[in-house]
Write a structure and sequence with these properties.
single chain; Beta-galactosidase, Chain A, domain 5; Glycosyltransferase; 2 domains; eight-stranded antiparallel beta sheet; 17 helices; 33 strands; elongated
């Protein structure tokens, strides 16, 4: 819970919340109700789940009127000031199990909670008079009806109009557009169309984007709330939701949230991580199966992120149906031995296959799925696809991905980045890493070993090509990648030129199921990472003394992308490092105590900073205190769940 005794508005609006609906939609804002980025809103719907997201309802402004007083509870930012300053009347904000804002003004108290209906583009706001006096509540919904990447302006000639009956309204952003339906359970709606102009989103401004917007109002709701009385506002893209009971829908959602946590989980932090992690698991309309949103607010479902994240989100937590479905979803889009690295935002666009590692990560997920569920029937059903993947890699596939003379996987052409270090603007790649990246060889070796494991389990014969490759990669790896400074080169070319840059990618030679080094060398790798890359909240992507190191992830798009993998700290790498550390130290009690101590900073971030009950995408490379980038990143949360469950840790 956040206490609002501190009236520093800049600090307060830096804290955000998000709730989701399981099909790509969400509701999100700052804890003051001030929208600080274009992606904030009460109802962001998904027209083609989990994508084609539209910001339909921006916010609801509130006033309390009693005893000749009119108290504005909302807070907006404009180019020159904040107005009104309703945050001064907020007493507290709670995030668990739902976002709840508690107001108090001159003896009048109001509680506001927000939730979404799972599986529906529906947001419900509940207002409850928690004081012992009655008052008039004035509520003004503000509409957008735009792509969630865009901004709205009155000059754009949006043609809003409203159709209403005695039960609800249908608000149309323009002729031919899908309406958002609006229902209120008490009070009288007063028509009064108007524009609220030049709302300012300071985070967009900091990120180098346009940052002002005009939002439309069709009128306001006025209702008398006696002590203990409640009024619900229902916003939905589904007309049938207008007939549903909001109280019943709230009870359903609370029951669903409670049921997300396995009965054997008694650690509150792990329970909250699992609940937060469920927000990434979504239904994909095109397949009828599950997928994983890489991060909120703006990411879609990405192959690499999904294969990494489902290990903690689904496999470790026992969600067998979801895990199997996610793997099948991506295999359904297999093309020339590659799964998509990204599904596009819009249905008419084709999936992208610009990846060398996403498909190899799928093998890791398959192996961990097998270890958890022992589902032979599932393995049998996907076995031909696994064989197809290896066949394409061996004979060569897109983006010059091929097997080298030493058995390694190489790839890359025209400066196109294929690994997770994929920042690029137009044709310029900041970390192309063409050749044989170290983590790709670890993943390739594991893919070969896992295929052999699955084949033996199913009684399938394995070709000598694959068995010979497995031995060859193991034999050649240390010769090619181990350097005189006692750590692993980040990259080796086919011409045997080595890039000894200290990066975190070498950790995967230790943390993945099948290892490539002896324990003594593993300890040296860990020492190198600890000395150069480890921070309290994640691993740096580049050593600090390298000439390309960027200490801050900030500024415009170019500045941020230039720093993205050149020193910026990524939280998802920290659990990977800590799992490797525990493995090398035989999971001793002393090692576990050190890991538990190290995780305290991420726990504090999860509960108290940036997006509450979430873990950010990145932090600055130097003094990584403030979460940046995406506010809620799937693999940041997932890998922490994986570590805590697999090692039975309590933080």
């Amino acid at each position: 819970m956040i206490d609002f005794n501190n009236e520093d508005i800049q600090e307060l609006i830096s804290k955000e919340w998000i709730v989701t609906n399981g099909i790509g939609g969400y509701a999100s804002s700052s804890v003051t109700g001030t929208n600080t980025r274009r992606y904030h809103g009460i109802l962001i719907s998904s027209a083609n789940p989990p994508l084609e997201r539209m910001l339909m309802v921006s916010k609801v402004e509130e006033r309390i009127i009693f005893s000749n007083r009119e108290i504005r509870l909302s807070t907006n930012q404009y180019p020159q000031n904040f107005y009104p300053e309703g945050y001064r009347f907020i007493q507290s904000f709670e995030r668990k199990p739902l976002p709840v804002t508690n107001f108090e003004a001159y003896g009048a108290k109001l509680s506001k909670s927000v939730f979404m209906v799972h599986g529906s583009n529906t947001t419900i706001i509940e207002y409850k008079n928690t004081s012992n006096i009655g008052y008039q509540l004035w509520l003004n919904p503000l509409y957008a009806g735009r792509d969630f990447h865009a901004l709205l302006h009155e000059r754009d000639n949006y043609d809003y109009y409203t159709a209403a009956n005695d039960r609800f309204q249908a608000v149309y952003p323009s002729h031919g557009a899908d309406p958002v339906f609006f229902r209120h359970t008490a009070g009288t709606f007063v028509k009064g169309p108007t524009w609220n102009k030049q709302l300012t989103y300071y985070i967009d401004q900091e990120r180098g984007y346009d940052c002002t917007e005009d939002i439309y109002s069709t009128g306001y709701l006025s209702c008398m709330l006696a002590p203990g009385a409640v009024v619900h506002l229902v916003f939905s893209m589904d007309e049938e939701m207008m007939e549903k009971n909001p109280l019943e829908l709230k009870e359903q959602e609370l029951k669903r949230l409670k049921g997300l946590v396995p009965e054997n989980v008694h650690n509150d932090f792990l329970a909250d991580l699992i609940t937060a992690g469920d927000q990434f698991i979504v239904k994909r309309k095109s397949t009828g199966g599950y997928s994983v949103i890489a991060g909120y607010h703006w990411f879609s479902d990405w192959g690499r992120d999904s294969m990494i994240a489902l290990r903690g989100l689904c496999i470790a937590t026992g969600k067998q149906e979801e895990a199997a479905s996610i793997i099948r979803t991506f295999l359904e889009y297999l093309k020339e031995g590659l799964i998509p690295n990204r599904f596009p935002d819009y249905k008419d666009d084709l999936p992208e296959y610009i990846t060398i590692d996403a498909t190899l990560w799928l093998f890791i997920s398959v192996y961990e799925y097998d270890q958890k569920f022992n589902d032979k029937e599932f393995l049998q059903s996907i076995y031909p696809k696994l064989q197809e993947i290896l066949d394409h890699h061996i004979k060569g596939t897109m983006h010059n991905i091929h097997v080298t003379e030493k058995g390694f996987i190489a790839g890359g052409e025209n400066g196109i980045p294929l690994t997770w270090m994929d920042a690029r603007i137009n044709e310029y790649s900041f970390t192309a890493r063409a050749g044989c990246p170290v983590e790709i060889q670890a993943l390739w070796y594991n893919a070969l070993k896992i295929f052999v494991h699955v084949s033996e389990k199913l009684g399938e014969a394995v070709s000598t090509t694959i068995t010979d490759l497995t031995v060859q990669v193991k034999t050649e790896f240390e010769r090619a990648f181990w350097n005189d400074e006692c750590y692993l080169n980040d990259l080796v070319t086919e011409e045997n030129e080595a890039d000894p840059t200290v990066r975190p990618n070498q950790i995967y030679a230790i943390s993945l199921p099948f290892r490539l080094l002896d324990k003594e060398k593993e300890k040296m790798v860990l020492d190198n990472i600890a000395e150069n890359l480890v921070t309290p909240v994640g691993l740096r992507t580049l050593e600090t003394y390298h000439f390309k190191f960027k200490c801050s992830y900030s500024g415009d798009v170019w500045s941020r992308d230039a720093a993205y993998h050149q020193g910026t700290v990524w939280p998802f790498l920290l659990p990977e490092y800590l799992m490797a550390y525990l493995r090398v130290n035989d999971h001793s009690d002393d090692a576990k105590r050190k890991v538990q101590e190290h995780l305290k900073a991420l726990k504090k971030h999860f509960y108290e900073a940036e997006c509450l009950h979430a873990i950010s995408e990145v932090f600055d490379g130097i003094e990584p205190k403030e979460g940046k980038g995406c506010i809620h990143q799937a693999w940041s949360v997932s890998n922490l769940i994986l570590l805590l469950i697999n090692e039975n840790l309590e933080i």
